[in-house]
Structures are given as structure tokens and as C-alpha cells.
TrEMBL record:
Residues 2-78 form the 2Fe-2S ferredoxin-type domain. Keywords: 2Fe-2S, Iron, Iron-sulfur, Metal-binding, Oxidoreductase. The keyword Transferase does not apply. It holds the Pfam family Fer2_2. This is Carbon-monoxide dehydrogenase small subunit. GO terms for molecular function: 2 iron, 2 sulfur cluster binding; metal ion binding; oxidoreductase activity. PROSITE patterns: 2FE2S_FER_2. InterPro entries: 2Fe-2S-bd (IPR002888), 2Fe-2S-bd_dom_sf (IPR036884), 2Fe-2S_ferredoxin-like_sf (IPR036010), 2Fe-2S_ferredoxin-type (IPR001041), Beta-grasp_dom_sf (IPR012675), Diverse_Oxidoreductases (IPR051452).
Length: 162
């Protein structure tokens, strides 16, 4: 089996993978990074979103070999260096932006991509950006509230959680 090398969450890693191995499987099974979830295997739910070279990617639609030499960020890489929750993760906790938590990694990664490109989104823009992410238990209200709170925090504004 070929060896694939990439940088994941700032660390150089390598592992073996067949040509047909999906990036999500490589991350979970070969590297032990199980925060990226497999929800549908059809690119419908967004639970597997990671960032590859700064772009949001549904890891169930990309072969691991395609990430050879790439910079990959997973939900584990969203934490602060000391292991505490990052701004977006903390906003999800503070604003009850999760219930079962299955979709949360993809939601956080999507939020990070949105806020990188638009640091002051409207509620409508957040909802539109989440279009490729499915949540079966929250109704999205608190997810949107969490993303707006994270955006405010990242802009240096004080935010009171409800």
C-alpha cells in the first residue's frame, strides 16, 4: 500500500492507504482522528467537513491520496494550543448549538470557513452558508446563534450567552 504524507492540524503525518481510501477514512482509521464524522457517504450531510489547504472539503468525497502534501485541519485542530475549546467551539457550547453532537464537527468547520471569508455575517448569510450541513435534532436556531456569537467574539465584541 502506498504511503501518504500530509500536515494535519499543524503536524506532519503519514500513513498507508489504498487508492480508493477516502480522506475521512484515512483521518479516522489511519490517524485516529475520529472527530470528523461519517454521516452519509454521499456528500449530503456535511458531518465530514475538514479544511484542505484552507478550503472546506467534504472528506467523504475526496480520496486520501488527493491530500498528499496538503495542509489539513480537522475539528481536533480547532481547539486552542492548550487543549481548551477554540472560539467557535466555545460559542457552540455557550449557546447550546448542539444536541446529539453528530453534526457539530462539520458545523464548526463550516462556521470557521464562513467567518474566515465573512467576519460579520448576517443571520441570513449564516443560514445560507450552512446549506450543505444537516442537523436532525436542533432546528438550527442555536447553531446560527452560536456562529453569530463566535463572529462577535472574534471581532472583539462582548457577547452574553442566553
Amino acid at each position: 500500500m502506498p504511503t501518504i504524507s500530509m500536515t494535519v492540524n499543524g503536524k506532519s503525518v503519514s500513513g498507508e492507504a489504498e487508492g480508493r481510501t477516502l480522506l475521512v477514512s484515512f483521518l479516522r482509521e489511519e490517524l485516529g482522528l475520529t472527530g470528523t464524522h461519517v454521516g452519509c457517504d454521499t456528500s449530503q450531510c456535511g458531518a465530514c467537513i475538514v479544511h484542505v489547504d484552507g478550503q472546506s472539503v467534504k472528506a467523504c468525497t475526496m480520496f486520501a491520496a488527493e491530500a498528499e502534501g496538503a495542509q489539513v485541519t480537522t475539528i481536533e485542530g480547532m481547539a486552542n494550543p492548550d487543549g481548551s475549546l477554540g472560539v467557535i467551539q466555545q460559542a457552540f457550547q455557550d449557546n447550546h448549538g448542539l444536541q446529539c453532537g453528530f453534526c457539530t464537527p462539520g458545523m464548526v468547520m463550516t462556521a470557521a470557513d464562513l467567518l474566515k471569508n465573512n467576519p460579520n455575517p448576517s443571520e441570513k448569510e449564516v443560514r445560507e452558508y450552512l446549506e450543505g450541513n444537516l442537523c436532525r435534532c436542533t432546528g438550527y436556531h442555536n447553531i446560527v446563534k452560536s456562529i453569530l456569537a463566535a463572529a462577535a467574539t472574534m471581532r472583539g465584541e462582548q457577547v452574553a450567552a442566553e
